[in-house]
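Support case: 6-O-phosphono-beta-D-fructofuranose complex. Customer-provided input:
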Amino acid sequence: IKNIGVLTSGGDSPGMNAGIRAVVRACAYHKIKCTGIYRGYQGLIEKDFEELNARSVRNVINRGGTFLKSARSRRFMTVEGRVTAHENLISEKIDALVVIGGDGTFTGASVFKKEHNFPIIGIPGTIDNDIRGTDYTIGYDTALNTVVEAIDKIRDTANSHNRLFLVEVMGRDAGDIALNAGIGAGAEEILIPEENLGTERLLESLKRSKKSGKTSSIIVVAEGDQIGKNIFELAEFIETNLEDYEVRVTVLGHIQRGGSPSCYDRVLASRLGIGAVDALLEGKSDMMVGIKDKKLTYVPFDLAISGENEIDIDLRRVADITSI
Ligand code: F6P
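Agent response - structure generated as follows:
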């Protein structure tokens, strides 16, 4: 392998820059060329390439977002798009790819590998933490801290006004952000996509906590929760069905995807970046490099994107007991 291409794809996450930096510097260390590919798979199809050297990635470890930019490429979902992408890799003499992203990125990588037998290693980069075969994804820790900081502020005003706040956090299919940030921020209730506890139970629980002396409450709601109402409808539902409740809604949105990465995410991204280049040089492909029990692991793409996200039963119990 003489030239490794690197790209970021799908929703960005804090720490992606640290991951790119590690890949670029690992290439420099092994004295191989590194080609940056802009705008994910879209840039691969449009040949938006730039050679990167060790100095190209100075002053990026602390920056959120991804300087290579990201995209969710529709063209890469077509056979023709992937043929063009392959032709561009060959003409640019790129021998292998490192792709940083989430399940969509790995699905694309897996199909591309099968069609063109091109060496690819994936690095999990998404705030959702919804990838199998790794304990953590790049950006998740930073996003948790962002959410907790925001809810701490909401708590101040909720408390001053004796209000109930519904706070929506990201996670279409995964409740990891909601459950962990909910525990960290001391939420009263946490609604996640992996379980449907129902609206009646929610009302009962709110009544109980009011009786027990609580004057304000925070409910963390994951985007993809199963309650069957959007967050504004849920607020209205609570106000109509419970007496004396003033409800407000805050949707945290993309603030969760930005900001300077935490130390944990920087170190994780650095380890995974080095691990990805090592893997390609050892002849591995069609795999994601992850972290399990503090050690680097390699799992096939198919496994990384398989199955549904599962909640940690123990964490759910912690949330239930601590919010009593
Ligand atoms: O996958 C990361 C994520 O931030 C999800 O949590 C969220 O549902 C989605 O991306 C939002 O996507 P977009 O930025 O395209 O609106």
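The first strand starts at residue 3 and ends at 8.

Case will auto-close in a few days if no follow-up is received.
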